[in-house]
Specification:
Helix content is about 60%, strand content about 5%. The protein is mainly α. A two-stranded antiparallel ribbon has the order 1-2. α1 (about 15-25) packs antiparallel against α2 (about 25-45), α1 runs parallel beside α3 (about 50-65) and α2 (about 25-45) packs antiparallel against α3 (about 50-65).
């Protein structure tokens, strides 16, 4: 579940958080982050950070060997 801030709406799973999950090499954490990021992207296709999140997701899938 993506955290929400009442004053700003949904908080995107920025590339930094995704890349930290990749660096952890913890596949459970990586898959959980992917789920959250995919759900955020589905819910926010017009968000200004959409492209950055999609790029980080591709890196995450590569790290998981699931391109």
């Amino acid at each position: 579940m993506v955290e929400r801030d009442a004053s700003f709406g949904p908080v995107p799973p920025y590339g930094t958080a995704i890349r930290e999950a990749i660096a952890s090499r913890d596949t459970t954490q990586m898959r959980q982050m992917r789920e959250r990021a995919q759900q955020w992207a589905k819910d926010n296709p017009g968000h200004s950070d959409f492209g950055h999140v999609q790029k980080a997701l591709r890196e995450l899938n590569d790290a998981l060997g699931e391109s």
